[in-house]
């Protein structure tokens, strides 16, 4: 009777736990809008700190190498000197700051003049470009009068609608657009201020990262104990290495792709080579979809100059994406994440839908961590139940014998 009562009590506690979890989930979903607004406000408030954290994360490998090398040099040259490490850290911090400023300045000097030139060219040559595009379509569809009539008719209809949209919607709302432009300028100034403050935060974090890491470990061991603490520290180190290797490797890969694209466009004298190469290089940081995201506006820009040039560039991007995906990317990144191709695509779609461009960038390493955690937890519970953790034992499995724990394969 006692055993029966214990079973009822367990079932009752389980039911109460399920109800409580359901209520909590329901409450979270009901208040999701308020939670999102609160998170957005917090992120906006500490955005300059987040800028600094990202900068420190990206420059940490450079900082470590410079400071370690200089510390060894100073120690060998001045063996009796007591502060070689401090000077090495100071010089490494200064070097990271100079490198960061140089990169930002170089990007601005490359992009802004090219962008202004591109906009002025588009404004000047857009009417001629549209006429050239129409003539090009007529030449291609020359041999098929029915198809030509359909395509050109739709093309002219779209042109008429765009003209009508410009006169009825764009011109009457010029004041609104000017206000939005002013707001955009203020937001850009806010970003500049955040970047400047972020650089200051970066300098502090680079010099404090060892201290902060030791304090975090102390708190973990104080709360979780030795066994669980060791697991947490190991996982944290894995997460840090995963993001560092993937993101830094992806940035190097994107720089190489941008340079290759610029060389190709310069050799065959394509217009806007520098601007398009920067766009292609920056968007290449996004796995899988990056080259195509960068290619679409570039193709549209080239289409106004010459449809044939746009077609050549589209074919080149497909070739470049294959070269990057099969040769350059694997050489630089290796098997950093260990994720199958399906999970790479799934993670990018999931995190891109949830968090936009930033989500697409961090999707692969984040999902790799989730994938590894689920695998480790599954293996732990399988071993605890006396079952095999290796996936090969479950290939073509029909069932597991309850008494002998023998794996019965399907016939």
UniProtKB/TrEMBL annotation:
Pfam families: AI-2E_transport
Identification of the protein by name: PF01594 domain protein
Bilayer-spanning residue ranges: 7-29, 41-63, 90-112, 185-206, 247-268, 274-293, 300-323, 343-370
Lineage per the UniProt record: Bacteria, Bacillati, Bacillota, Clostridia, Lachnospirales
Biological processes, Gene Ontology terms: transmembrane transport
Organism: Lachnoanaerobaculum saburreum F0468
Cellular component per GO, a single term: plasma membrane
Annotated family: Belongs to the autoinducer-2 exporter (AI-2E) (TC 2.A.86) family.
Superkingdom of this protein's organism: Bacteria
Presence of the UniProt keyword Hydrolase in the record: no
Location in the cell: Cell membrane
